[in-house]
TrEMBL record:
Any one Gene Ontology molecular-function term assigned to this protein's record: ATP binding
UniProt-recorded name of the protein: ABC transporter ATP-binding protein
Presence of keyword Nucleotide-binding: yes
Residue stretches making up the ABC transporter domain: 17-247
A family per Pfam: ABC_tran
Keyword Protein biosynthesis set for record: no
Organism: Streptomyces musisoli
Keyword annotations from UniProtKB, A to Z: ATP-binding, Nucleotide-binding
Amino acid sequence: MMNYVSEPSRPPAPDAVHAENVTVARGPRTVLHHLGFTVPRGQITGLLGPSGCGKSTLMRSIVGTQAKVTGTLEVLGRPAGHPTLRSRIGYVTQAPSVYDDLTVRQNLDYFAAILDPGRATAERRQDVERALTDVDLTSRADALAGNLSGGQRSRVSLAVALLGTPELLVLDEPTVGLDPVLRRDLWNLFHDLAATRGATLLVSSHVMDEAERCHRLLLMRDGRILADGTPKALRTRTGTDTVEAAFLRLVDEATAEDRTKETTR
Ligand SMILES: Nc1ncnc2c1ncn2[C@@H]1O[C@H](COP(=O)(O)OP(=O)(O)OP(=O)(O)O)[C@@H](O)[C@H]1O
């Protein structure tokens, strides 16, 4: 007789981000209102919406750098901002944060040393070379960061975020100012990171054609989530051909609803 030993039942890995009733105030104003959504693991989720709708504020909340966040916001199974999340998240802000008077490789060496001071030098060098290859900057590794183009500087910031092989990458408008070829290459890299390393990417943009490249979308307007789903589901739901048309239809519907509420008050 054979003994069958049942596998211990493991709870499923939590979503990369789980938000319930998340509200954020900046100064005297509430800029995010009662947001509820999830970001599944191993996929690219696009965060899209017009300028000022709250994309950066939401990203800052997720990485734990935003004050006055209320509600439930869990990231990789921990409360947002938990110290153990620091090495598990890569965050690229809109403004490239690199030192102009260091070369590209020196910038990466410096950040790699801060990220993991105990790591052996040879391993750290390997991490740096891998990150340089990821963003296609090996040929510019010895150039001063201050002598790079805007797009190249953005890619150095991205390389810094990739150093620790983070599980979650939060990228705030990473393709702004890039030419179409670089944009395409970066999107190919994002897909590669999700497919081969199982990374989760949350990428903000207000360029709607980039939405079509995401697995899932969170569409925002005025500090609220307008819609959440795959590009196909959003097109189907709104009876439109593109995510841009779907977004405009949803904005029009929401505006009409707001007006109705105002007139019935
Ligand atoms: N430091 C601040 N103090 C007070 N309000 C702020 C501050 N920074 C941003 N805001 C306000 O918060 C709201 C959301 O801004 P946020 O930068 O998150 O929008 P966004 O969607 O990322 O915009 P963009 O696409 O232009 O970067 C805006 O109304 C903005 O005016």
